[in-house]
Amino acid sequence: MMWPTSLWSRSRGRAVLDATDREMVQGAAQQGRQRAYEDAMTVRAAILLDVDPTNAECTVQVDGPDGGPAPAQIVGPTRYYPGDRIMVLFPGGRGCLVLGRFAGNYDDWHVVGSDGEPAFTAGWGAAAGTVALGANGPAKPMFTKRGDQVELRGQGERSSGSAQTIFRLPDGYRPENDLLVQAATTLGAPMILSIGNTGNVAVPSGTTFGVLDGVVFTARPPIVSE
């Protein structure tokens, strides 16, 4: 059967037009998918390059060839430092937010005897000449946690009584079992410091001075109640 020339031309033109339409639709769909991917919230790994003194804004280098440097905002009360491995959220083309640190968030130093912090056992206090956090000099007794590692710092002194416990660590900062760790009574004089799984940080009987600098241990995992 022979098709009329005019009908054949129109049919062939329609086929060409249909193919062009399909390509246009496919291209638009691809662009739409790409735009949706770019606008979707994604979390990526990064390195923190620098952070401002307010701990509110920073510069990050996101893993991969197209990763920055890029400005970012910090959310949450965690203190960050250059070189930290972090997680960054891209909330759909509106910059990026620092969510947290891979090794666990850095804790603030908790200075024993300060408002809202554990108190000294009766008779104990910060040793004479010790200074607050960040000052130049030996530290007051304090503790912090990085990931699951608890670190102690500072010097305590007993001025009265016979209590062996300097202070008590709060839950979340206590070891799984009672620990005996190397410490010092004064610079150069060794001492075995006791850290109980109830949180008591104690010196041997008769000791009136304790140096906590450099004591590090693994905290007990949190107890989840059913």
CATH architecture title of the largest domain: Sandwich
Poorly predicted runs: none
The largest sheet has its strands arranged as: 1-2-3-5-4
User: Per the principal axes of the C-alpha atoms, what is the gross shape?
Assistant: elongated
The CATH topology of the largest domain, please? Immunoglobulin-like
How much strand? 35-45%
General description of the model:
This protein is of the alpha+beta class and 226 residues long. It has two domains: 41-101, Nucleic acid-binding proteins (OB fold (Dihydrolipoamide Acetyltransferase, E2P)); 110-218, Sandwich (Immunoglobulin-like), CATH 2.60.40. It has one helix and 16 strands. The strands form four sheets. Strands 1-2-3-5-4 form a five-stranded mixed β-barrel. A four-stranded antiparallel sheet has the order 6-8-9-16, with no helix packed on it. A hairpin with a 5-residue loop joins strand 1 (41-51) and strand 2 (57-62). The longest helix has 35 residues, at 5-39. It starts with a helix and ends in an 8-residue tail after the last strand. The mean pLDDT is 82.
